[in-house]
Amino acid sequence: MPSQPIFRFAPSPNGYLHLGHAYSALFTQRAAQAVGGITLLRIEDIDIARCKPEYDAAILADLRWLDYRWPEPVLHQKDRFAEYEKTAAKLKKSDLLYPCFCSRQEIAADATETDPDGAPIYPGTCKHLPQAEVERRLAAGDPVQWRLKNDEAQEEIGDMLIVRECPVDDRDVHFRDEKPRAIEPGRWGDVVLVRKDTPTSYHLSVVVDDAAQGVTHVTRGMDLLAATDIHVLLQALLGFHSPVYAHHGLVTDGLDKLAKSAGASPLRLLRESGWTAEAVKRRVGLAD
Predict the structure, then answer these.
(1) Residue 195 clears pLDDT 80, i.e. is over it
(2) Are the C-beta atoms of residues 205 and 80 closer than 8 Å to each other?
(3) Euclidean distance between CA atoms 287 and 12, whole angstroms
(4) For strand 145-148 and strand 97-100, is the pairing parallel, antiparallel, or unpaired?
(5) How far is it, in rounded angstroms, from Cα 75 to Cα 15?
């Protein structure tokens, strides 16, 4: 393990940062400072269709305004597709991935359960396709995504896996008070690790990059708490060290969490309207 703790803030440039992102970035920086660590910046831009250069530039400007500091260079996931392909190839060679040709509509129609995010759990339709049918459809170039054989992956690992989690309050992470928790990756079903439109998924790329960057501590929102179970499972399968995880609360508008998709006010507009960085820190409860 690195002698210095390594943290990261990893936004996606598919929109402008808002107060929720400000809280997460500042919380990460505060947590790193508390243990003498450093904070990286990673741009998670695997979604080529939605991620835009103007959003990328805005992220850098907003974070500098907030005084979030990071060492260069910034890792961009769009530059690392070859690494994700290599990792997926290892899992395929171990017979832990299988091709899925189903559409979202077909999955929604056949699913009987939902995952922790409320999305339909894949019922395993393509897992049972005859090999000749699989080969025919792959040769024909049918749109395909690759899913993790969740049950087989857990059997491969064997012993029950533990995620190292730390309690969090509004301002601090208690790294000296870790609370191990047994993971439950089965509640996600056979998750997609290679999408139809790009050679990776969030779950695969984040695990590969945390390992590549030597990340020792991950601080992120409670909305990603359940995803940690899949990440710890993948880390074990790939022989990666698992970071310590801490999941902080979410900034809300009084009812729902702030989100780009819901039209949360961008930091850049707050700045243009006269907000200062200190005002943002006070609003999210992280003023110095």
Answers:
(1) yes
(2) yes
(3) 25
(4) antiparallel
(5) 18
